[in-house]
């Protein structure tokens, strides 16, 4: 009798428990749905009223459901792109190749690469009525945010472009940046890693993941001179200084350690030769096939090589890769060309010495008369310490073809001092402490080509200013 009563009581409790669980699941699903609806409404309003809004909708969605990313990304095959320089351009290249080949794909192409911005990207593309099938999500991810994303998204591939000193107040030195990325990779051991083999910090990776490497199989120039400001010059195994068979730029190249034998890993994809390199782009041999890249600079060859590597792993035909790299649209301050009256203004994002040096090298490829505009801010997103400008090789800039230098941004006077020390005559400077005077100086200049190099918040705020003035149609 007692056993029978106990059995009935047990079954009753089980029914009640299951009922509570079902109600709780229904409640959770409702809250998640409410979060998606609210956030998509915010995206719509932001696009209409503020011409964008990349992070706030994601923040709101997280208030409703802290696991929202798992739900809105589950029908996509993800490819994550991280690293210091080249994330946005590489992401845009991969996205363009997949799209042009007929593959369904979404991307956070504006560079909103923080956790909340990535959530906003998936929310924007979320559909209540149809599920994404055979659709890829090519997502740029901030190095410190990778660990948050991979808790919810198990990508097919993670690409790492390079590791340079950047925003030292936020990231610290390059080894700290690497540890943040590795923390994110450890959440997803089944993911394929596509890594820059010329980056010494990415060799000897003690990870269970399948790893493929890309890099240069031959030097980019006849010079084998290494910079005094290498960001990673010591062997990660024994701390002995590396020796290079050749360098491409900064610490990227064919390296080896003379003490312990640590050497560059075998390359799975490689640039065999640079056939031509000028201010319009480059013609290169990748895996012994000719490609034209319409983005100037050696650093963009690396970006294209990474995109090529991912595309080949996905089985994309060379024709689509070739056509996409040749016709790629420059977006959001990544060699973006804007017309201001009769002037051509090319906006280039700069944020650290390695990237700034490569931007200056790409400007040196243009042998015509031109002007230079430099915008330096010290907001949180730029890095509050601007002492890094003293590691930029302004001395290597060909000032014979530069007729005028326009300086603006919060720290414009720091720039003016740095350029004076580099040997530039201050009589060629124009100091503009607001965007109206900057625009006026650009408009009244004698040169038809102005290269505008700006840190992140300077670039985004000046683009907003140009959008309000009607010079840019799409803000994001």
From TrEMBL:
This is Lipid II isoglutaminyl synthase (glutamine-hydrolyzing) subunit MurT. The keyword Nucleotide-binding applies. The lipid II isoglutaminyl synthase complex catalyzes the formation of alpha-D-isoglutamine in the cell wall lipid II stem peptide. The MurT subunit catalyzes the ATP-dependent amidation of D-glutamate residue of lipid II, converting it to an isoglutamine residue. Pfam families: Mur_ligase_M, MurT_C. GO terms for biological process: cell wall organization; peptidoglycan biosynthetic process; regulation of cell shape. GO terms for molecular function: ATP binding; carbon-nitrogen ligase activity on lipid II; tetrahydrofolylpolyglutamate synthase activity; zinc ion binding. SUPFAM superfamilies: MurD-like peptide ligases, catalytic domain. Residues 349-459 form the Lipid II isoglutaminyl synthase (glutamine-hydrolyzing) subunit MurT C-terminal domain. Zn(2+) binds at residues 235, 238, 257, 260. The active site is at 385. The keyword Transport does not apply. Belongs to the MurCDEF family. MurT subfamily.
């Amino acid at each position: 009798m007692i056993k029978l009563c106990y059995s009935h009581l047990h079954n009753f409790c089980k029914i009640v428990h299951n009922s509570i669980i079902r109600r709780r699941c229904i409640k959770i699903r409702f809250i998640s749905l409410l979060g998606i609806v609210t956030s998509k409404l915010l995206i719509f309003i932001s696009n209409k009223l503020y011409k964008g809004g990349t992070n706030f909708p994601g923040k709101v969605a997280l208030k409703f459901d802290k696991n929202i990313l798992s739900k809105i990304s589950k029908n996509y095959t993800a490819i994550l792109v991280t690293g210091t320089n080249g994330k946005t351009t590489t992401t845009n290249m991969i996205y363009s190749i997949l799209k042009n080949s007929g593959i369904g794909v979404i991307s956070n192409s504006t560079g909103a690469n923080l956790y909340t911005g990535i959530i906003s990207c998936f929310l924007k593309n979320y559909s209540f009525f149809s599920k994404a099938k055979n659709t890829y999500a090519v997502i740029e991810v901030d190095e410190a945010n990778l660990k948050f994303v991979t808790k919810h998204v198990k990508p097919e591939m993670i690409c790492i472009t390079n590791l340079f000193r950047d925003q030292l107040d936020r990231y610290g030195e390059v080894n700290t940046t690497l540890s943040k990325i590795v923390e994110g990779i450890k959440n997803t051991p089944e993911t394929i890693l596509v890594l820059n083999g010329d980056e010494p910090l990415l060799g000897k990776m003690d990870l269970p993941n399948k790893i493929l490497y890309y890099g240069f199989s031959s030097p980019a120039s006849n010079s084998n001179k290494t910079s005094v400001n290498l960001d990673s010059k010591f062997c990660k195994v024994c701390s002995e200084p590396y020796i290079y068979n050749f360098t491409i730029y900064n610490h990227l190249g064919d390296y080896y350690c003379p003490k312990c034998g640590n050497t560059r890993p075998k390359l799975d994809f490689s640039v065999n030769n640079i056939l031509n390199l000028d201010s319009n782009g480059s013609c290169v041999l990748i895996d012994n096939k000719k490609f034209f890249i319409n983005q100037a600079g050696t650093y963009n060859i690396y970006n294209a090589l990474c995109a090529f590597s991912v595309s080949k792993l996905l089985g994309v035909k060379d024709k689509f890769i070739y056509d996409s790299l040749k016709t790629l649209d420059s977006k959001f301050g990544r060699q973006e060309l804007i017309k201001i009256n009769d002037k051509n203004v090319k906006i280039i994002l700069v944020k650290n010495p390695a990237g700034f040096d490569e931007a200056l090298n790409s400007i040196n490829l243009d042998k015509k008369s031109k002007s230079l505009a430099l915008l330096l801010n010290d907001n949180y997103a730029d890095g509050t310490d601007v002492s890094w400008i003293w590691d930029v090789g302004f001395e290597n800039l060909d000032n014979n073809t530069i007729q005028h230098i326009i300086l603006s941004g919060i720290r414009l006077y720091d720039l003016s001092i740095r350029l004076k020390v580099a040997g530039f005559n201050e009589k060629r400077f124009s100091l503009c402490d607001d965007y109206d005077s900057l625009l006026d100086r650009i408009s009244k200049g004698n040169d038809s080509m102005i290269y505008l190099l700006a840190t992140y918040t300077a670039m985004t705020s000046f683009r907003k200013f140009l959008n309000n003035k009607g010079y840019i149609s799409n803000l994001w």
